[in-house]
Amino acid sequence: MRLAIDIGGTFTDIVLEHKTDLYTKKVLTSSSQPEVAVIQGIIELLQENKINSSDIKMIIHGTTLATNAVIERKGAKTCFITTEGFRDVLDIGYESRFDQYDILIEKTMSLVPRKYRYVIEERTDINGNIIKPINTKKFQSLVDIIKNEKFESIGIGFLHSYGNPKNENDLKEFLLKYLPDVEVSISSDVCPEIREYERFTTTVVNSYIKPLISSYLKKLDTELRQKGFNCPLLLMTSGGTLTNVINACNNPVRLVESGPAGGAILATSIAEDLKLDKVISFDMGGTTAKITIIENQKAIKAREFEVDRKARFKKGSGLPLRIPVIEMVEIGAGGGSIARVNKLDQIITGPDSAGSNPGPACYSNGGDNPTITDADLVIGKIDADKFAGGKIDLSKEFAKNAITKNISDKLNIKTETAALAISEIVDETMSNAARVHTVEQGHETSNRTLIGFGGAAPLHISRVAEKLRVKKIIIPTNASVGSAVGFLKAPVGYEVVKSLRMLLNKFNFEKINNLLTSMKDEAEKIIQNESEKTEYIEERFAFMRYAGQGHEIKVPIDNEVLSTKDTNKIKESFETNYEKLYSRILPNADIEILTWSLSLSIIDEKHTKYIELDAYKNIKENSLIDFYDYASGEKIKTPNYERKNLKPGDFIHGQCVITEDQTTIVVSNNFNTKVLSNNFLQMEHINNE
Amino acid sequence: MNENNLIDDKNNIQNQVMWNRLLSVVEEQGQTLVRTAFSPIVRECGDISAGVFDLEGRMIAQAVTGTPGHVNSMAESVKHFINHFPLNTMFEGDIFITNDPWMGTGHLNDFVLTTPCFKDNKIVGLFSCTSHLTDIGGLGVGPDATDIHMEGLYIPMLKLADKGVMNKTLLKLIGQNTRQPVETEGDVYSLAACNDIGCKRLVEMMKEFKIDDLKKLSDFIYDKSLSAVESEIKKIPNGVYKNSMMIDGFEKDIKLEAKLKVSDNFISVDYTGTSDKSKFGINVPLSYTKAYTCFGLSCLVSAEIPNNAGSLKPFEIDAPIGSILNAPYPAAVCARHIIGQMLPDVVFGCLEKAIPEKVPAEGASCLWNITFRGKTDRGPNNNSLFAVTAVVNGGTGARPNKDGLSATAYPSGVRGTPVEINEAVAPLLFLKKEYNPGSGGKGKFNGGLGQVIEIKSAIDEDMDLLASFDRIKFPARGRSHGESGNAGQVSIKNKRKLNGKGTQLIKAGEILQIFTPGGGGLGDYSDRDKELIETDIENELI
């Protein structure tokens, strides 16, 4: 038996896995002491199901705590020590503006203000040679400053330290000797990659959240033990693998965005169960929608991510992190996203959200901005009496008033037309994000299966599917707690990334093989702490480009000692990938490798309840409801079903609305719906040409 | 409400949806260009433009990447292509190319490629894009030339591809006329690839929405954008507003003079009174003058309205022929960005008299790109020569109710280059690159800070600095009693001053020291919030 815990901004979701059954619980997050709600929720869930703490064999935990500490600036008092002459790298950033036309933008400032940034004489060059050694005599004054200012955490970042970490290591060692209680993070550990702004920023974020995360995790671990849980506690990382408490405390920056990573893992495991090679994972909640590509039953991994985007999810307005992440795009489109009319008389939705307080207008909680949920209610996608299992009362009148006042009066159109338009615009926004993201990864959308979860996804997924020309949709069970369910499917693993620049035709095999061996040792050491199993899956990648280009593509390489015969293989592999992305290869250009990654993961045996059914039979609806159809703009009587009454093998032809406790599945006229053997819903396009 | 209205509503919503789609298509077009480019100023800094056009040559959507210098100039260039190659002579798979400064985007380093887009064997629209190539021969990226032919290879309007077959002769010719043949060829391919993506997506969209031509959609976008900008202009008091600004120039000081007229539904800017053209390559073709002037106007008047033929229509820009802002062939124009990027400040100075509450102070404005050329030990393809441009900025002017942005590009939209990347691609060693405290003009709101930068050769070799800097003699001025920002400085550290413009030698071992200009302040410094002053002092920013 295993437990998964997902702490979100509003709710903490807990999922108990017993053989192949899942039991879920949602409690309010206790922001100041998150462990309180976690413990309370776990105890309640176990009591409800008459299970002892000693029966639990593993607890898997993901949290937005790290992200929120950054966004709300609630981390530790942190200082940053860097190379003399480069005190402002953290603030100078890209020297650009994330919005071309808005002269009033605010840039995201570093977590460490200038007054807490100190410089020392030292310098390493591009080749890793130390051209100015550090002078330890000058360190004593640094120690005094740190003591006087009572810094809790220190970040160290020197130029070119990814090529030679000696100076950073020496300083760290010295500081720890005199300041044993202060946390120290060095850039060559946290993010050994070229490009100083990203490397330093990642290091500073790590330093900033380290004291908070480690004290929280240690408290949680202790309390769990006191309550009789003697099983391992593992943490979900942004890269989609699991890590133990010690590693999480050392490298907490890797916990940022662990919730959405859980969602992507869920989609990956569904893709495996159902044997789907080409998938788009679509996770739409109250505030944002997250879109991830799953290719050959694997989520695409990336190495960069932006946290704390100031200008409402606008690219470039946040702090760039260079960490292993699951590649996804997150946009401000959720149930709570606000709709309005802009200067061009266009309806726009989001990216700002009404949140849970006051929430959408229909919550009758003082909110008077029309949201996606209000529009969904007016068009009949949401049944006011059944929302959240009937636990939250929705007012259709308040929803209509908000839309009339803010949208339809301004445009002189009917309220229902405006509601349809709001829904259509948000669907278009999400589809555009999905399309651009898919193409950036070098893929198409149209031949894929869409897997939808999160509270709002089932309401919008069939229209999004039409726009992406997707022919098949899957809605799993427990869709509204998808991330936590995903945690249970994650592998234990670790990824190491290192920069070592080299032209392919001047390949230094000894250097590369040594580097890869040391990377493997590092990864092995970490995962051996977490699991007794010694067999694991190893993956190696090189990040390559034509010499002279600025962006690399990711190319898989063999898990063996490399030798001369491999250069051609690597070249071919690069060219195949390049051509797939950009249509033409360049015959005359040199190829170079910048960065290497190596990951190890342990995979548990899978349980699946999915078997292919031979036959499906038509069933009769529970009732008929009024529903506005986008294609015709008309009100149509639409069949309504209760999901709990649906059984494997059931078949619904065409348009319908399927209600369940925490969400509603809206199926357009272009899809037929099947209930699979594992109770997942599968919608298939009627004209499957 | 009758049925027709309902259909109109639906069509409007559908047009709006397709408009959003077009914006996402051109965004993707631009991203493809950045990801495949070789030229560092494109791949690290995003110096590009990409857009989609209707059959009249009207731009209907443009990617919000890159730099405003390409905005209006690329918009015009497609009309030139259509005049030169009539639509009925275009075939699927054709690609057209030019780097004509007067028909393209203002200097020979910018290649413009235009690709007609076909659906069911019928031409439905055109995609165009432009990016800055590192080297196109001639004297290199600096203002030293005295006519256009000294600045490199001049490519007239030609076919780069004919029904899908690349023009090998032209590619060879281009390759032979650049110091970086592999990279330049790669960049041409990259431009072609990005238009291909655009065409593909446009056809997909037209199939999805079941339309056979773009006429109605294009009219919809044009009309909506035009009337939106017009209604913004109506909010500005009618009148004629004048301003003039002095800048350094090359061989002599330059006066930029503008008369801005606000009417009911349009704004005109006339640069009569501006200095005559220069002997050197800092001259500006009119298309580029229009581009930066429109950009300045858009920022204050119509910032939220996407750029297209309709939203640009209400802005009428002119400069006397032979002036530095309308320099005709064969004037040298390579470093036209120096003066072009000053034009938003000139426009703001006019608008200050009409809408003072919206106008920022003057900033460093022109990019302080540091271009070096010399011997290297680390070039790709065993090249023993290097040419590199480190993109670097000063501070922007203080803004209404906010300080200026330190070390940030404005009006240009490009990114700076990381120190570690500069040192990887060229044999340079940076000794310093940080804020220059106190360099922003003081005011109720301070101007943004400039930077202090020190660089020397990493391999003890001589190298050339191709200087193209301004605001060394005339700093960015403050407004409403705000003080001027610090002027820029270029020198060999502890030795001698260097000129702001022109190629100069930096000897092995010498340290180039640069102070980029600070932005001007806004309002009286005695009105500055005491807490802000304390924070400035604590952080050693003043």
Please sum up the structure shown.
In chain A, 31% of the residues lie in helices and 27% in strands. Chain A is α/β, with parallel strands linked by helices and 689 residues long. Chain B has 542 residues and is α+β, with helices and mostly antiparallel strands.
Largest sheet of chain B: 7 strands, antiparallel
Structure summary, number of beta strands of chain A: 36
Shape of chain A: globular
Give the termini separation of chain A. 44 Å
Strand content of chain A: 25-35%
Helix content of chain B: 25-40%
What is the number of helices of chain B?
Answer: 12
Described by the principal axes of the CA atoms, the overall outline of chain B is globular
- Specify the structural class of chain B: alpha+beta
* Average of pLDDT of chain A: 88
Largest interface: A-B, 70 and 91 residues
Instruction: Estimate the mean pLDDT confidence of chain B.
Output: 92
Description:
The complex is a heterodimer of chains A (689) and B (542). By secondary structure, chain A is α/β, with parallel strands linked by helices. Chain A is globular. The mean pLDDT of chain A is 88. The two termini of chain A are 44 Å apart. Chain A contains 16 helices and 36 strands. In chain A, strands 13, 14, 15, 20, 23, 24, 29, 32, 35 and 36 form a ten-stranded mixed sheet that branches. Chain A folds into four domains: 2-71 and 214-255, ATPase, nucleotide binding domain (Nucleotidyltransferase, domain 5); 78-206, no CATH class; 276-490 and 607-689, no CATH class; 492-602, Dna Ligase, domain 1 (2-Layer Sandwich), CATH 3.30.1490. Chain B has 542 residues and is α+β, with helices and mostly antiparallel strands. Chain B has two domains: 3-226, no CATH class; 360-542, no CATH class. Chain B is built from twelve helices and 20 strands. Chain B has helices at 3-36, 40-43, 71-84, 168-176, 181-208, 215-233, 286-301, 309-312, 337-340, 343-351, 419-425, 530-538; strands at residues 48-53, 59-62, 95-98, 110-119, 122-132, 158-162, 165-166, 239-247, 254-262, 267-270, 315-318, 370-375, 385-390, 428-435, 451-457, 463-468, 489-492, 496-497, 501-506, 512-515. A seven-stranded antiparallel sheet of chain B has the order 2-1-5-4-3-6-7, with helices on both faces. The termini of chain B are far apart. Classes of the chains: A alpha/beta (689), B alpha+beta (542). At the A-B interface, helix 3 and helix 12 of A face helix 1, helix 2, helix 5, helix 6 and helix 7 of B.
